[in-house]
Design brief:
The protein has 110 residues and is mainly α. It is built from 3 helices and no strands. It starts with a helix and ends in an 8-residue tail after the last helix. The model has no long low-confidence stretch (mean pLDDT 81).
């Protein structure tokens, strides 16, 4: 019983060493999360633009459907601008904080 538990523990340790990179520091992890969220938001933006375009193309001249499609596209673009502005502001703040606390040369998002 004890030998199998030891073997299982060794297997878990080998799996953890082989698959998980524990050499990242906190700014790198934050950058990874921010990049993942931005990628997800880019996909959502593309889906909304395609949805708005599809609604517009299938409106068959119906003014109400065209306005709905225009609103979808407009809101998607406004959302993209807000996300990019938030990213730029947070990038500026994180870079300034990193440079002021580490003595310069802080590349937060890479």
């Amino acid at each position: 019983m004890q030998a199998s538990a030891l073997t299982a523990q060794q297997g878990l340790q080998q799996a953890a060493e082989g698959n998980f990179n524990t050499s990242r520091n906190i700014p790198q992890v934050i950058a990874l999360v921010v990049n993942a969220v931005l990628s997800l938001l880019a996909i959502i933006f593309i889906v909304l633009i395609v949805l708005g375009g599809f609604r517009w193309m299938t409106s068959a001249g119906n003014a109400t459907k065209i306005e709905t499609a225009k609103e979808t596209i407009t809101n998607a673009v406004i959302g993209l601008v807000v996300v990019l502005a938030a990213y730029a502001i947070s990038e500026f703040i994180l870079r300034a904080l990193t440079e002021s606390t580490s003595g310069g040369g802080g590349d937060v998002v890479s």
